[in-house]
């Protein structure tokens, strides 16, 4: 539980912390090519590790199969099975947008 509370606090630090866990380029490529996962969500600023910010995102974007949801606020969500519904703001010509996610237990 200590590790979870440490990582949950990363989003609220005043300085950017590069120690968070995220996908490398190889990890993103493997996920795209070897799974049927359609959504990857993370409770920090990026699903990609700090050393692979651009290249890991490009692996996900080029596949157009996996939706990335970054900046989720999950620390108050009890453990359980949920359906997640993501409602994006449609922005013409953009590769991403603000999104509202709704969890239904």
Q: Choose one word for the global shape.
A: globular
- Give the DSSP E fraction (strand runs of 2 or more residues): 15-25%
- How is the quaternary structure best described? single chain
How many β-strand stretches? 4
Unreliable segments (pLDDT under 50, ≥5 consecutive)? Answer: 1-6
What percentage of residues falls in helices of 4 or more residues?
25-40%
Distance between the termini: 23 Å
Can you walk through the features of this model?
The chain is of the alpha+beta class and 105 residues long. It has a domain at 2-13 and 20-76. It is 27% helix and 19% strand. It has three helices and four strands. It has helices spanning 2-8, 25-34, 53-63, and strands at residues 39-42, 67-70, 83-88, 99-104. The protein has a two-stranded parallel ribbon with strand order 1-2. The protein has a two-stranded antiparallel ribbon with strand order 3-4. Helix 2 (25-34) packs parallel to helix 3. The longest helix is centred in the middle third of the chain and has 11 residues, at 53-63. The chain is globular and about 30 Å long. It starts with a helix and ends with a strand.
């Amino acid at each position: 539980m200590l590790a979870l509370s440490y990582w949950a606090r990363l989003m609220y630090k005043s300085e950017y912390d590069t120690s968070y866990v995220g996908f490398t380029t190889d990890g993103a490529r493997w996920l795209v090519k070897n799974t049927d996962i359609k959504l990857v969500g993370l409770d920090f600023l990026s699903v990609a590790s700090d050393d692979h910010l651009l290249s890991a995102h490009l692996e996900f974007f080029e596949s157009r199969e996996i939706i990335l949801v970054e900046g989720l606020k999950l620390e108050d969500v009890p453990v359980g099975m949920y359906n997640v519904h993501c409602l994006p703001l449609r922005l013409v010509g953009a590769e991403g947008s603000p999104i509202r996610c709704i969890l239904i237990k």
